[in-house]
Amino acid sequence: MKVRDFRTLALGCCLLLVAASAGFAFDFSEIENSVTEFTLDNGLRVLVMQRGDAPVASFVTFANVGGANDPKEYTGIAHMLEHMAFKGTRDLGTTDLEAELEAMRVEDSLWHELRAERKKRDLADSARIAELEAAFEEAVEAANQYVDPNAIWRTYEEHGGVGLNAGTGMDMTVYFVNLPSNKAELWFAIESERFYRPVFREMYKERNVVAEERRMVLENNPISKLLDQLKAAAFMAHPYGIAIIGHMSDIMNYSRQAVKEHLDRYYVPSNMCVAIVGDVDPKEMHKLARKYWERLPASPPPEELATVEPPQKGERRVYLEDPAQPFFAAAWHIPHERHPDWPAIEAMVDYLGQGRTSLLYKDLVKEKKIAAQAGAFAGMPGSKYPSLALVYAMPTTESSNEECEQAVFDQVERMKEELIPAAEVEKIKARAKAQFINGLTSNQGLAMQLAGYEVLSGSWRNMFNELDRINAVTADDIQRVAREYFTRQNRTVAHLETTK
Q1: Which of 2, 127, 385, 428 is the most exposed place for a label (fewest CB within 10 A)?
Q2: Residue 107 half-sphere exposure, CB side, CA atoms within 13 Å?
Q3: pLDDT per residue as tens digits for the range 242-289
Q4: Cβ neighbourhood burial of 347 (10 Å; 0-12, 13-18, 19+)
Q5: What's the pTM value of the predicted model, to 2 decimals?
Q6: Which pLDDT tens digit goes with each residue over 151-171?
Q7: Options 3.30.830.10, 1.25.40.10, 3.40.50.150, 3.40.50.9100; which CATH number does 316-498 get?
């Protein structure tokens, strides 16, 4: 997830837009000076930007953990943990805490017995499995009777909160909500508590919800299924090849203990950042942060992922048969987002396949009429580590995947051979700058950008280098990265073939 920052937004955006035609020069020093940063004794980083436009504020908690950090046998557990973080605390979400905890202990004990017996496979005792399954279902019902559903959501809504949600990516997990600024202490109390003393209630019920989510967004969506297989073929070592939501067998084998161990490893203060933007006093936020967030014990940050995807030495191909409309996709390995080549790569995919003026749209959709849709983007499925640039096309009923593939690769070769006109390069950079500005239009957007840059790039101040990185891109850079990365041996091709 990319993220940026601002203060007097209406005026600032106007100035930035005017400056775009003049090399996008702008003095960000005033903006930088409006951000207050401090680190608590336990290592938690807190960023506060005071904006008094309205008596509201956005609160973001950013954790440096995503699908790429999932352990074997528990793929998708970062996403599952995000779900469980909304299940409440020792104070919120229960009608009888002690009775609930005892019922959960019985539930967990039966699940571990059942899981162990099932893992025996052919040697398992089927009668024992049936007995344990019945007892386990009874235990789940017994534990769930003490649950006060959606207590966190209801509490925030009763105090004017809106937009409470979260998201898990391959690189991070982020939680956010917007509240009246005089309810800041409520947020500090609830948000810190659900990572300090969480209660993973309804664990096994929610596991079924996640399994259904996988069926809906992946297994029953042919294009998603194809892209999932493309990623698996492209990444033979790195966990980017595994879907964020995880394998179904792993989902159905989650345990409460595994979720707790994942939280204890990654949700430590030194691996998190809190960002607050709105009508708040930084000094008061500091005081509240120390009161509530310093309850979390200090711990060293977890080690960074060590697995590195080896260079691809030849084209790989994936074919999926499904009674759905055909679809073509191709992906090339590219570096991570902080790599010096990243801005040129983004410019390349913009020129190749973003919008109605792109090469792919003009050639495949408008002129040849062999595709109903065509496009390209960089950073699949993440960008913290080396990832993929993806190109896709959806053939019309009169054409085929093969025709679209040939046309796409023709345009790729064209980028390698022909230097992009200077005027086109300036348009590409103007669009990138506009996209940069669009991330600065709300308190929540600003908080996301601050926390994201702080966690993923090492400092929130790096956001102010983005304009320089964009402005530095040249036509030669775009041609060079096309030649370097968009090679036959570096690509993975996928076809969704229609069956009756």
Answers
A1: 127
A2: 25
A3: 999 999 999 999 999 999 999 999 999 999 999 999 999 999 999 999
A4: buried
A5: 0.91
A6: 999 999 999 999 999 999 999
A7: 3.30.830.10
